[in-house]
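Reminder: ligand-aware prediction takes two inputs, not one.
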Amino acid sequence: MKIILNNTSLFESLRPFNDLGFVPTMGGIHKGHLSLINKSNKICKKTVVSIFVNPKQFNNKKDLKSYPRNIKKDLKILKKCKKVDFVYLPKFNDIYKDKKKSKITLPKKDKILCAKFRKGHFEGVLDVMNKLTKIINPQKIFMGEKDFQQLYLVKKKLERIFKTKVIPCKTIRDKNNVALSSRNLLLNKSNLVIAAKIYKKLIGIKKNIQNKKNIPNFLNYQKKELKNNYKIKIDYLELRNINNLKISCTNKNSRLFIAYYLNNVRLIDNL
Ligand code: AMP
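Here is what comes back for the chain with adenosine monophosphate:
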């Protein structure tokens, strides 16, 4: 596993390879990330993992400051899994040396779910993914369904511009079904117990949706229940079609999307 600290070294190291799998991360490596790496390792000749906490996708300074960082531990895990060929650890200037302001904007129809509640977040994500793809030029990029809207928007944008294919990967959960996330490191045991209860409740809600006439009304009611029962703040609880992310009135081809705050930590999931 080669550790790459700047773009010159990156270009030199990757030049000989034309079957690269790329797994972009912000570190805090967990089994969710490793499942993406496994998939890349199976399908592609070489796997590149990047660790870069992209400041431009944080709409909240406190969130950026508290985002879990532990490069030493991350590198140890990545080395141990024996499936990573290159780890790219860019500095801010490696990505943003071109000082021109990015022109990325989201169309109105995409300003839903997290885009509605985290202003500028996806513009930052799309910008950094655009830049990373240009720099790395991978054949395939592996991304998690856990961040479904991110996967949807990045796939739509990158596959229009580059030859790169964006490959969706299933959400990996802990033994209590809580979706793994680097942000879980900011939760204590009792927070995680609540997150597991919320997951269970969401499964019940999704099952019950089937026979509801007015789904948005039903979900509004469930949102209030969840808020009251678990003392959480909820940004959204919505059933949406997986192909176009439009509000859905059937379980078919749909997922239930939630974003909520537990102990001031923003968690998202979809099922
Ligand atoms: P992050 O480091 O949180 O930016 O995530 C990097 C990549 O890992 C993204 O494509 C995420 O969707 C994916 N990912 C994060 N958590 C999980 C998970 N629990 N299961 C599968 N993929 C995940």
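Residues 120 and 200 are 31 Å apart (CA to CA). Residues 25-26, 32-33, 35-36, 143-144, 146-147, 169, 171-172, 179-182 surround adenosine monophosphate (CB under 6 Å). We will return to this case in the review session.
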